[in-house]
Amino acid sequence: MNCAAYNQVDQAETDRETAFRVNADGVKHLALACKEFTSSLCHFSTDYVFDGKSTQPYRPHDKPNPISIYGKSKRAGEVFVQSILDRYYLIRTSSLYGKHGPNFVYTILRLAKERDVLKVVQDQMMSPTWTVNLAQGTMQLIHSGNFGVYHFTDRTDGGMGWFGFAKEILKVKGLENEIEPTTREAFNRPAKRPAYSVLDTTLFTKRSGYEPLPWQESLKRFMDMR
Amino acid sequence: MKVIVAGSKGMLAQDLIPLLNEQHETISFDQDQVDITDKEHVFDFVVVQNRTLS
Question: With a cut of 0.90, is the ipTM above it?
């Protein structure tokens, strides 16, 4: 199971070599080892392999067209998995947060302590995903034996913006910071992000039996655990 | 199943490994033990673990 990745999206723009070494070559080596030892590979990828021009949730076999170095490096890793192996689970997920690493929820909670007013991007549609849900779904998928390409996120019914996600984080915590929506353009980060990267999880549910948890419920459970 | 997990110190792996441990023989590593960008290193590790696991 490959949970290793270079996932600093902005830094990848100026560190293409490391991003590709880990996300493409690293994945190739794991896939080759799986082939050599007649094993299957479960690999995680990202919504950032898509360009965001779609207006409906991306399905697993929609055409990737990454618009950032990070996205390109992750797509290169996917291509290695798919060309080297027959037996693989390739699971694309999106906007991950969890207890054991830096993530958007922690960032918002930190900023809420430091600033009265928070500005958060709204013109980027996605579905947040709690690591615990992805872990449970992945367990069910690998026990099903149904190899293939899948999409997994928490349930958002068509996606949401980061602004809406941030607002809910503050609400669950009972924080009263002011929050303003902003745009990707105003935020001006080094890497381009897809405007729309909502993933269609239907196939994952069909083949694994796992029903994604609504995003509000996931967030609440995550915050209760902290 | 016998499972090897790469990236054991990452955010996802730390929620996934406990679930794998409940049902599978699981070995995990992070970059301080195995550098996945080094093919020989990956293969050497799997050879050794394959003996341990079976």
Answer: yes
